[in-house]
Amino acid sequence: MKLSARNQLPGKVKAIDVGVVTAEVVIALDGGGELTAVITKKSVENLGLTVGKKVYAVVKSTEVMVAID
């Protein structure tokens, strides 16, 4: 599958916390660090997500905010 999104970050599922409707999916990125995505419970099922599964975090946004302390 090809996507127009430039930010495709490879990693592996580190944890999945499934709620009634949504789930938090923690992805350990190949380059270091972690990213947490909130997706529907149905999407977790449809994608067959399990801990250790290879995935891509795809970031498509029209706006990115930058902050400093």
TrEMBL record:
Pfam families: TOBE. PROSITE patterns: MOP. Coiled coil: none annotated. It is a peripheral membrane protein. The gene is mopII_2. It is found in: Cell membrane. This is Molybdenum-pterin-binding protein II. One of its GO terms (cellular component) is plasma membrane. It comes from the Archaea. Keywords: Molybdenum. It comes from Methanoculleus chikugoensis. GO terms for biological process: molybdate ion transport. Its main location: membrane. InterPro entries: Mo/tungstate-bd_C_term_dom, Mop_domain, Transp-assoc_OB_typ1. Residues 2-68 form the Mop domain.
